[in-house]
Design a protein that fits this description.
Layout: H1 4-24, H2 26-29, H3 32-72, H4 76-98, H5 105-136, H6 139-154, H7 170-173, H8 175-189
Helix pairs in contact: 1-3, 1-5, 1-6, 3-4, 3-6, 4-5
Bound molecules: fe (ii) ion (2 copies).
Length: 194
């Protein structure tokens, strides 16, 4: 089963797990002597992985999921507008996190914000948007949308790009080039490799 809800739920489960682990590590992260350099490096790597997963996930939601919500759900525009606002705010935070090191006060502050807001965003989608969409989407459409999301993720950017307008069509038009450029940068910097 690769319907839209399964694909999105798998992503959410992965992200929620990362948030729990990052939250658990936050107590000692500001004191390198407690956690050590290795722990801080791992923490930074986990945040990089979180940013990669989040960037791909939100990019395909913007490209395929929100247009379907707008089209099919009566209150779809309001739901999509609210969620996209949350996503844009999250991208800014994640983009700021890229330049910081784990254990830095600013890093920990931004991450703590992201953990709270990220959970609120996931809860909004799961509790308000998904039930509304489930009521109106056909099994066939749900399956097709799930496939589009999975395919789209392969070409999706791995960085947040907070200044790119969150409009469908962007990923189709510029996404593959942006994603390719992101991946080149990832390779050069070793980002997301370990
Ligand atoms: Fe989202
Ligand atoms: Fe989501």
């Amino acid at each position: 089963m690769t319907d839209v809800f399964t694909v999105l739920a798998n992503d959410h489960t992965e992200v929620k797990q990362m948030l729990t682990e990052l939250e658990a590590g936050s107590a000692g992260a500001s004191s390198a002597s407690v956690h050590g350099e290795d722990a801080l490096r791992l923490r930074k790597n986990m945040v990089e992985q979180l940013i990669i997963e989040e960037s791909k996930h939100e990019a395909v939601e913007e490209e395929y999921f929100w247009p379907a919500v707008r089209e099919l759900v009566t209150d779809g525009d309001r739901l999509a507008d609210h969620a996209i606002e949350q996503e844009q705010a999250a991208k800014k935070v994640l983009n700021d996190l890229i330049g910081l090191d784990a254990g830095e006060a600013k890093f920990e502050e931004l991450l703590a914000n992201f953990i709270t807001d990220g959970r609120a965003h996931i809860a909004f989608e799961e509790n308000e948007v998904w039930p509304a969409l489930r009521r109106v989407i056909t099994d066939e459409r749900a399956e097709k949308l799930g496939e589009k999301l999975e395919q789209g993720k392969k070409l999706a950017p791995t960085r947040p790009h907070p200044n790119t307008p969150p409009k469908p069509g962007i990923l189709k038009a510029a996404g593959p080039a942006v994603a390719a450029a992101d991946k080149v940068r990832d390779k050069i910097t070793g980002r997301g490799q370990d």
